[in-house]
Amino acid sequence: MEELLRTTDITVIPLARTLLADEGIECFELDVNMSVLEGSIGILPRRLMVRRDDLPAARRVLWENGVRIDG
Question: Class of 2-64 per CATH?
């Protein structure tokens, strides 16, 4: 798995997951429990992971839909 994006914006991960699912790209969210433990104040980022082979297509899907990916 490769990191597609990392964010503290709670709206970005669900949007990205939906866009990727519509394209048949599987993804996995990391650090969900850590952000819950810190009290959901948005300090700790969550990460969205995809398969290495899907990374270019996943980046394209997010870019085409206006989802900013840093890095």
Answer: alpha beta
